Amino acid sequence: MHEFSPYLALAVTAVLAALIAYLLARSINSSRLLRLSSEKDAEIARLAQLHQSKLDNVTAAERQKHQQQLEQAEQRFRERLDDQFRNELSVTVYPFVNTRSERNWIFRETVIELGYKYQLLVRGLPCFEPHTVVVESKREKEVDEEMVEILKTKALQFAEAAIAAKGGAIPGKVISIAKTTVSRIK
Length: 186
Description:
Distance between the termini: 118 Å
Helix content: 55-70%
Largest sheet: 3 strands, antiparallel
Structural class: alpha+beta
């Protein structure tokens, strides 16, 4: 039989000891990692709860601030209405903008009027129609290029048709002169 050498036994023992040490370290690290993970999860949950409570406080404060501003605006509005009813006569003034557009065959015209309207109120109720004051008026006139092109084409077609219907020796020359004139106008 073969005798095992003491070195071989020592080497096998060392490998087994290293394997056992590795497995122990791995189990210790995994339990440590699980413990650290659960600690981190608890810390994250605690921070999330703290953050949510801060958000709730901020939104509650914002809601309360908004509610106060709304109540103040309502109070100012009520006071203005009361002032209007207490006074026998008052005048309301407000701005206006009127825009008119007109379109014909060749032109597009836009008129813009800026100004204000005022109206007499008796105890807060409107009296008569509002009076309009135009402060500034602006008129813009544009040429409809598309329509001009269509009219040029139609005029040239009518001229060609009229010359062709008339006949004669020089209709081709007249048509070329008309085309040259139309192209210069373009």
